[in-house]
Amino acid sequence: MSSKFTEGVVAESKRSYIHKLASEGTRIDGRDFDEVRTIKIKTGFIQRADGSALVELGDTKVLVGVKIEPGEPFPDTPDMGIMTTNVELVPLASPTFEPGPPSEEAIELARVVDRGIRESHTIDMEKLVIEEGEKVWVVFIDMHVLDYHGNLFDACGIAALAALNDATVPAERFGFGEDFKLPIIHYPVPVTFAKIGEWIVADPNLDEESIASARLTVTTNEEEKVNAMQKGLFGTFTYEEVKKSINRSLSIGKQVRKIILGDENGKEN
User: Fold this and answer.
1) How far is it, in rounded angstroms, from Cα 239 to Cα 16?
2) Per-residue model confidence as pLDDT tens digits over 175-206
3) Domains of the chain
4) β-pair partners for 144
């Protein structure tokens, strides 16, 4: 991803201050390196959607709506449903967002979220077949960034998973029997890290993103499997830094997953 999300001149004094704090083991908002911002989730936010979630990750806000409709399967997967994702960067969310066709940043964001969900086999696509080779359920995931204060990858990924977990297939509406819950079988959680100097922090806020040299998003599920990874910006991570980030993502992912599902759902090992 280009620096569209983080463009703008960062005062050298702020850059130096963030580096100084990192050298002391803390961050500009007082968090530890592995500490994510407060997560708030409200599902069922859009009444006319088949599933929805409003997620606040600190001051970053994302609204996701899920729509499910019958359609034709892809020729090479006649026995599986279809999933598609889309991101809208609402101009009011940030002065760097502009109206018009999807930007490179929006396309990358949608792809990262899509890959985490798809590669983890979050949805049991075989259960979305209405008539093999003829008609299947198509799941549309629409993500709307309402307020951008850093780390859209995690905010969108969390909101998408919460909305999918909230979704019901509207079979009755289309004359295909009784409604049923969207069959969710895995729960992938993305965790994004930013490299600031020699330090690596989880869930970067906007100030940290603005001065980061590299970014790494690691998506893992409840089985502690790495489902997807995405490297961004022009800096580099060493092999050991990647390994450490993966281990950190597993631990943070467990915490976040409990917030998404609630302790009583317990999809943890």
Assistant:
1) 27
2) 999 999 999 999 999 999 999 999 999 999 99
3) 14-261 (3.30.230.70)
4) 63, 88
